[in-house]
Protein: MarR family transcriptional regulator
Organism: Thalassospira mesophila
Amino acid sequence: MTEKFDLHGFLPFLLHHTSEKVSLGFADIYRDRYKMTRSEWRVLATLGQYGAQTATDIGIRTGLHKTKVSRAVHSIETRRWLKRRQDENDRRIHLIELTRQGESAFLSLCQAGIAYNQKVRDFLGDKDFEALTTLLGKLNSM
Amino acid sequence: MTEKFDLHGFLPFLLHHTSEKVSLGFADIYRDRYKMTRSEWRVLATLGQYGAQTATDIGIRTGLHKTKVSRAVHSIETRRWLKRRQDENDRRIHLIELTRQGESAFLSLCQAGIAYNQKVRDFLGDKDFEALTTLLGKLNSM
DNA sequence: AAATTATAGTTACGAATGTAACTATATCAA
DNA sequence: TTGATATAGTTACATTCGTAACTATAATTT
């Protein structure tokens, strides 16, 4: 007898559903606090965590398409949260770096992020939280 | 000492990243085979699995916004994969139902879905696959 | 029963997105 | 060296999306 298909147990669906729920919970925070989009938050976080880097680097680290990175960088630049510096040896490249204000917004959102993470951890329990993280990491490497 | 924030270990990010990866793997299939979008696939799958229902029901089951449902239903209707029937008692309501062709496309994608699920299960191993499904379900109920 | 409120679903419109084309610069090959 | 190819990043354009407004119908209140 042939296995039955169940949309709600189907991993792509289940993952997307969960991801949206969890992502939106945190998106509320950076949207309300700074009117930021998801792309902008990711670019900010990558710059905050890994320091000065090129748009290409940001794209690799965030998984964002280069046009999204370009637009997000431009938008964050408009707030004066980052500055660009052209590489002297390779003038196609711009090193992108947070300003003091950008750094400060990043730190403020980090705190919120850590608190949010903790909320999820409390809900799942430490053991399940770790297990989930590990499993997602494993699946990511497929 | 204050905990350090790590974007790549941050659940909203990790989940989204994994979800995109896994979703896109299956999206390739329905896109290549039928030029369907994700919304259309979800609507089709919900109709296939739960039978005739209203647009509102579909929205609840898929988590899609009603405008997305409306557009997806319209688009699938154009292919003649579903038909609508106005409720006689409440004329705001339309019961939506797959046609024979819609049913057949659904069954074909179910097979592909089951195969895809199996591929992921093979990669993770039965135990981890079950664990992941359970954890996602738990997180979903947060 | 008339006025009000609620629900189902569609549509209009501005914002966000992805693809592809483009500019500028650098590297490689003949 | 110069012609071809590759890379960094931006921009144009068509598509998709979400919000809000809208139409139609039903239910509720007065």
Remarks:
- The CA atoms of residues 33 and 109 of chain B lie 9 Å apart.
- Residues 37, 65, 67-68, 71, 90-93 of chain B lie near DNA strand D (CB under 10 Å from a C1').
- The beta strands of chain B are 82-86, 94-98.
- The mean pLDDT of chain B is 94.
